[in-house]
Fold this sequence. Notes:
This protein is an alpha+beta fold. It is built from five helices and six strands, in the order ββαβαβαβαβα.
Amino acid sequence: MHFKQYGRTFQLRIETADDLEAVLKLDESLWVATSAPTDVFRCDSGFLSLLDPDGSKRIHTGEMKQAIRWLLTVLADRSQLIKRTNHVPLAAINTETPEGAEVAKSAAYVLKTLGQDDEEAISLKSVRQFLSNLKEQPLNGDGVLVPAAIDNPET
């Protein structure tokens, strides 16, 4: 982990998983900001909502650290972080932790449901396709029964 000068300020360069882990130990006084509004980031809005679990429309350092801890707990092969791909190999998931085991189980379920059980990686596209398909189902597990779920008109 090292700092690089951009204009008049020095900013942290995060280039490896080890750098990301070192962020957890970094004094917050060295952060450029202790929070940032979600609307200034140019990235997936679904991702931002996961980083902002309280819905404050701001990502705080504590939330960022929580996300980093979760990510490092879930991944067994941290080299995936620097590859900049839109998929995660199933073998890279750490099934030795409860969180990783749940992610691996969910990934396998998503791929099986999509008929992609022979895939060795899960992609964001597959997850989004699964969620889209789920919303179309009359019984989708959200606890709400829609009229289309009933075969018998008398019921």
